[in-house]
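From the pipeline queue, job 12 of 40. The input is one protein chain; the requested action is below.

Action: predict structure.
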Amino acid sequence: MIPDPVVERPRSVIMALLVLFFCVFMTAVSRGMGETFGVFLLPLSKQFAWERATVTSVYSVYMVSLGVGSLLSGIAFDRFGARFNYCVGVTLLTCGYGLAGSLDSLWQFYVSIGILGGVGAAMVGIVPTQSLVSRWFDQRLGTALSVAYAGQGLGALMMVPLAQLAIERFQWTGAYTLAGFLFAGLLLLVILLPWRTIQQGARNNPRVAPSGKSVGGLSLSQALKTRAFWGFFFVFTATAIGIFGISLQSVAYLIERGFTEVEAALAFGVVGMLSFAGMALTGVAADRWPRHIVATCSYLLSFIGIGALALLQWYPGWFFLLVFVVTFGLSAGARGPIITTLMAETFAGKGLASIYGASNLGQGLGAAFGAFGAGLLFDLTGGYSIGFALCFLFTLIGASLFWLVPEIRFAKRG
């Protein structure tokens, strides 16, 4: 049961749920389209005769741009408001994916998919979502943010199978062109929304002044001097290395293990579906039990998933695939809602969007390193074993930070 909008007045509840739905949808479509690059991996490799590290470098640029874009997104939100973020973000996504179908060189992919796609997704993703949702929810903020954050998993569920079907029907060029038309349609919707009402927030919310602006709290420069900020930053970084080193390679890996392209894409899509459920359930659990314990349980599932995927090298078949899909799916991204809620409580105020955006730079850098590193190790070794070991190690580091950083382990609920 999510409704909370501070005092549960019918109009406030309805508006809060509509804002939450919008945030989930925009996060799902923007990040989901980015995660479809896993199914474009083999078609692009074959089309241009690129090595695996070369193709994954595009995704690495995307993730770096997503991280840098998160910082820019937070600063823009604090200075110019939500309408600016969403209009600019969807415009970048329209241009990036609209152009992608006609590209023929690596640097062009860096610009369109990597930079425009990454920054565009950041401008409409979890950074403005966190700030908007925290204006409409108070006591149930953790649950609401977990649902919003789960939009990333929902996006993979929706977009990855659709992208695979579009590639089979229209080739990779047509699939990207269709994505461009999708974002062009969304741009018209975004322009027409009542942004003044959306940004105002619920009445009596202690995080929002009557003017609709966030009050109090630390600035970005002040937050950078705290141990709490860097704890969150490195949790994002280490975990992203482990998770994205696995997720980007999983479709190509499953195909090489004997599964069909549709089966591999479907498995990746189910991982996205379960990650949606896992993020939501993790957020609910973190509202009831110690957050470092809940996070540790989700990391255990990630370890099992990585191990099951590795065992497919020697025992190909549906059993270990099922174990991987269930455990990795339920845990992929599950730490995000916990960190998002902790940061919303720790840094609530005028600088929240900028601070959260800066911490997300760690996720972008970690994801880029994990994705490119896994591809490079494949090219150097001809296999995945070392890459799996690297992902396991960094996932373990991410888990340990929940216990070693006092501001995370002993954080008081807002």
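Job complete. The mean pLDDT is 88.
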